[in-house]
Amino acid sequence: MQDYLKRFQKDLFTKVFFAGAQSLPPGKLFLRSDWEPPDDKVPLELKRRLRLFTRKVASLYRLRQARVPNLLPIQYGVLKALKESPHTLVTRSDKNLGPAVAERSDYIKAALKDHLYDGATYRKVTPVDAEKEIIAIKAKVLAFIQTFKKTLSQQDRTFLLRSLADVKDPFPHFYITWKLHKTPLKT
After folding, report:
1. What domain range includes position 140?
2. Quick check: is 177 in a domain?
3. Are residues 141 and 105 part of one domain?
4. What letter does residue 90 receive in the DSSP assignment?
5. How far apart are CA 179 and CA 95, in angstroms?
6. Are residue 93 and residue 132 in the same domain, yes or no?
7. What is the CB neighbour count within 10 angstroms for residue 175?
8. Most buried residue, 51, 137, 158, 172, by CB count within 10 Å?
9. Rounded-to-integer distance, Cα 122 and Cα 117, Å
10. Distances (CA, A) of 30 to 3, 50, 154, 178
11. CA distance 139 to 133
């Protein structure tokens, strides 16, 4: 609950800080920022009222430990065993058919055989080459922003610049989804 209230406070203070300023045109791209308005620019009365509101909401909603899970003991035991097993993996399936459980070794073999060993689609790169590619992509994005700075909206420029700066792990992560509706099973 605390995370929601903190986010609410940040959003509220930001909206009050920018109240009356010309707003940006609506866009589809948005990256949340860690920026917060300066503390001295937020009215004291708003802070006081938010404190009272937060206390009241917090008193109404307290996290409690559920006494009994909404599962039969055997169901709960199976789920716990699956979660803790180093040999099984719960993955996604295709067509919104829900989760799929697979042996970790089978999952890895399927990913390699069906996809990663396909030289026409994938090639193995060294860590050094991967870093070079990330730097090259960042340079291309910056060049794109520079080339189209007059046609890109401020919101789109902000999104693109934040996506370059705020990414902790710039590398995509490969995963497969099981096509459970296919016989034989495919990924």
Report:
1. 73-165
2. no
3. yes
4. E
5. 8
6. yes
7. 10
8. 158
9. 7
10. 20, 26, 11, 31
11. 10
Across 39-181, the runs of DSSP E, i.e. the strands, are 88-92, 99-103
Alpha carbon distance 187, 181 (integer Å): 11
Which residue matches tokens 């026409």? Answer: 120
Q: Is 47 helix (H, G, I), strand (E, B) or coil?
A: helix
CA dihedral 167, 169, 174, 177 (to 10 degrees): -60
55 falls within a domain: yes
Neighbours of 31 (CB within 10 A): 13
Write out the chain's pLDDT in tens, 187 residues.
Answer: 478 888 899 999 988 988 888 776 676 666 778 889 999 999 999 999 999 999 888 888 777 777 777 889 899 899 899 989 999 998 889 998 988 999 999 999 999 999 999 999 999 999 999 999 999 999 999 999 999 999 999 999 989 998 888 778 888 889 999 999 999 989 9
